[in-house]
Input
Amino acid sequence: MAKQYLRLLSKEDLQKIHHASLTILQNTGMLIDHYEARKMIRAAGADVEDEKKIVKFPPELVEKCLKAIPRRLLYAGRNLENDLILQADGGIYARTASSLTSYLDLETRRYRRGTIDDLNQWTALADALPNIHCCGTNHAEDVPAQTADIHATRVLLSNQRKHFFAASFSVKNLKYMIEMALTVRGSKEAFKKRPLFHSLIGIISPLSIPEDDVNMLFLAGEFGVPMIVCSEPNVGATGPITLAGTIAQTNAEFLGASTLAQIIHPGIGIPYYLLPTVFDMSTGRALLGSPENALIQAALCQLGSEFYRLPVEISALCADGVISEQIIFQKASATLMASLSGANLLCHAGTIDTALAASPVHLVIDDEIMAVMHRMWQGIEVNHDTLGLDAIARIGPLGNFLTDPHTLKYLRSEEHFRPTIFDRDSSQAWYAKGSKRLEQRAREKALDILAKHEVEPLPEEVQRELIAIVSKADQELIK
Output
């Protein structure tokens, strides 16, 4: 816990939220649209009303299943150096968004619908950026809509080396996505030991789990696919108007879904991931970059990491609108609050326009933001050597430390952050160098990376098999 600095809520506040969530689950319950799952929950001790499909969870069952959730998650990359370990007192990482349909063209700088070529470009850029640790599948309009998630999974398996998040349209689609991952890993046992991707259980707020999402949970547990609980209530619309009320409901949806998951597959990986949004009453839009969102996310990070001791994913790299200065401010402020409140994986890097569009330029900027966040999260190391007493004694009054051995020792250490696209020049130097704004610097860096970066290809026989699986999915799923 030494690395978590922000305490937005008191211990009493956390306990009140937890108790409120248990009360919601016990008195109101959740609608679980899956007969077999309800049978299993009833056998575990829950109160089930089959006619209404309502499950009411006794607190002791929720508490028992909470203890069964792994406190350490492996998000494996294609190779060991790209593995992520998520745990409550671990490091901070970032992943790109998923399910985006629009793309900001790097060459023309215009918005349009995304394509497979765009996804290839996006994944290559994410693979190269050192502070983007995990990718996500986006949609392409030049492949069949019913199987776009399967096509995107093939791209990420083939063209980048990091762990990724794959949002599946249905349990039928998820089967093909898992089949491709098994082809890359070589066996079911190898994939279960080192899962290449994680997926999601979708919640319809308030308090409902659809049948197909439960089916995906059954399938994921069989193959060891970690699953996030995607709960997205809108404050004031599908969640209470008060922030505390939406936090309590959102947390209840996580606890209910994770209890179901542990009953179906004890020990399945479930990170603490929740994505409530603020409903803008004046426009009807769901806001992701408002200050209320940042507060909710910080509270959830603290609840997940401090109270439950679970690995935490949070979508803090989100912003509303398309104005770069606004986007950067919203992302930086929310990300700082989340990272200092216990977040492990900060999601939606590279997004703009309320997480509807992917921007390669902002993916590069977000990589820089994450570098800053990582430095802040590291804090200040205080020991005899870093206190510099020997150096201070050597230099004495009116001296300088420029050539002292202590300075040379720490000059290039992680003690000091060095930007790659943020500018520290004076105004005179900036104008003399050509007056490049941040977006231009990020765009040039992206183009340079794409011109030089290469990913070792998968074996040819594996690539052929992936293409064959996608083709089979197109034939069987498109009607």
